[in-house]
Amino acid sequence: VTNKGNRKLAYKLFKHALALSPRFTEALNKFGEFLEHENVIQADLLYQRALSCDPGYTTAVMNRRRTAPVVAEHDKTVFAEIDKQKKELYKYSAHHPTLRSAMKEFYYQHIYHTVALEGNTMSLDEIRKIIDLKIAVSGKSIVEHNEVVGIAEALKYMNNTLLVKVGNITVHDIKSIHKRVLGFVDPFGAGEFRNNQVFVGRHIPPHPDDVDIFMEQFEEWLNSEEVVHLHPVEYAAIAHYRLVYIHPFVDGNGRTARLLMNFILMKNGFPPVSVEVKDRWEYYETLIAANEGDIRPFVRFIARCTSKTLEDYLFAAELPYLNSNDPEYFKAGYSTFLPNP
């Protein structure tokens, strides 16, 4: 199939076959071969999925030997580009006026996106009113108000307490973040591990009796030699995934995981990033892929979010100063903030 029409039909047939039988090894491998010349990363993922179904599938093994080094080199290049953006950003002072304005704006943006991912219907302007003016928004529930306040408190705690703390990241730190995230919604469950079994789509998190053990192991990993050899973005993304995999709390796991991810990024000199509402589908799809055994799509997704954030910072730094009360400010596309200097 060489012409575009036939390729389009073939693509649909492969997708249909895998929708009917997601573990159809031959279809996974053939689909990878079909895509390899135009999308080697996607092809490599398909070969990997085929091998997770049948580790001895010879053709997929041979195909992966060909694609894996190419994909590894691609990922290295992505991280190198992110480091280059970070280095470029640090040529500017953290007190640069447009960067400071951008920092303030992203504070609202981050709260908006992280609660919206969980179904909160507050608009960006309504969130600004709640935080700045301390007023209630008519037509919105008490729970939605308290979710906004909770994230604002958690961000404040991270900036003012955790980032100046010397030492390891601990389970207590994670519980403290969660306590603020959920403290205004569920004061009794905030900062406490669940004591019941939960289900997240097809994923079944650990039994409640095992949560303490899993979290102790997670703390060990967070401070292990292994993470020293990871790029900070990779480290932050895997930490996010591992926390939502354990799902230690009844509610607020996603919000806490995104805050933990940003805490790690900020400790390593990166600005915090948002998972934007428009990227919700890709965010959840890559988390599902991680549950199925391949975390690389999720790491790449977080890397793109990080790159976009750095790009936004650099864009803000190169603009003439605009006050956040200026109507033109919001046309400038600011969406990020720097951690406290």
From TrEMBL:
The catalytic activity, as recorded, is: L-tyrosyl-[protein] + ATP = O-(5'-adenylyl)-L-tyrosyl-[protein] + diphosphate; L-threonyl-[protein] + ATP = 3-O-(5'-adenylyl)-L-threonyl-[protein] + diphosphate
Indicate which residues are glycosylated according to the record. Answer: N159
Q: Which Gene3D superfamilies match?
A: Fido-like domain, Tetratricopeptide repeat domain
Stretch forming the signal peptide: none
Q: What class of enzyme is it?
A: transferase
Where does it localize?
Membrane
Q: What keyword terms does UniProt attach to this protein? A: ATP-binding, Membrane, Nucleotide-binding, Nucleotidyltransferase, Repeat, TPR repeat, Transferase, Transmembrane, Transmembrane helix
Give me the residues that bind ATP, please. 200-203, 251-258, 283-284, 291
Reply yes or no: does the keyword Transmembrane helix apply.
Answer: yes
Output this protein's name: Protein adenylyltransferase FICD
Q: Which organism is it from?
A: Ciona savignyi
* Upper taxonomic lineage: Eukaryota, Metazoa, Chordata, Tunicata, Ascidiacea
